[in-house]
Amino acid sequence: MLKPILDLGKIEASGLIDYLYDIFHRDFVQRQSMLGGKLWIDPRSERKELGKEHSFWHLITRGKDERFPDYRRAERLEWVRQLVEAPHDPCVSAFYHRESNPKQDIRLYLWARAHDFVVIIQRLGRSKAFLVTSFYVDQKSKRDDYNKRLMHYASGSDPTLHQGWF
How far is it, in rounded angstroms, from Cα 26 to Cα 32? Predict the structure, then answer.
């Protein structure tokens, strides 16, 4: 299902951000990307940093206060749209999780387990959602945490998690 990862080593360092942004722009700004064909993924173009959508930076960088390039995320940028548009694909484990943030947001995780890649989505009202982040799962503890969250969701013990967004 997933395309080969991008070969970022072939891209001049000075043009890397623009190269990646062209992909993001193509996949989420120029064309409407729909979660499972039902829920619009809003690129939230009104929220920009350095002239590019806030969500874009969270798909290619990592960090809390200061963000740094994350090449493992960036080389999988084209996978984001693929997972969003095909959440029922057998390679995707889709589950909802209640976050521990102040609002206790419920977010959708699209996890390509065999490829250690996750896309996290938050709903915005009835007809749209936005990309919170995506990343390559490079730590066993994180993989274990996602397995735990997936099992909790699958157990059905928290009926508020069964959202049916798509």
Answer: 9
| 10-42 tens-digit pLDDT | 999 999 999 999 999 999 999 999 999 899 999
Query: Any idea where the domains of the chain sit in the sequence?
Result: 8-158
Is residue 120 a contact partner of residue 106, using CB atoms and an 8 Å limit? no
Q: How many CB atoms lie within 10 A of CB 14?
A: 7
Q: Are strands 68-69 and 61-62 parallel, antiparallel or unpaired?
A: antiparallel
Residue (of 23, 43, 48) closest to 33 by Cα position? 43
Cα separation, 89 vs 98, whole angstroms: 23
pTM score of the predicted model? 0.93
Question: Of the candidates 31, 28, 10, which has an alpha carbon nearest to the alpha carbon of residue 19?
Answer: 10
156: left (phi over 0), alpha (psi -120 to 50) or beta: left
For 65-114, the pLDDT digits (tens) are: 888 989 999 999 999 999 999 999 999 999 999 998 777 789 999 999 99
Give the E-state strand segments of 54-113 in sequence order. Answer: 61-62, 68-69, 93-98, 106-112
Name the packing angle between helices 16-24 and 77-85 (round to 10°): 10
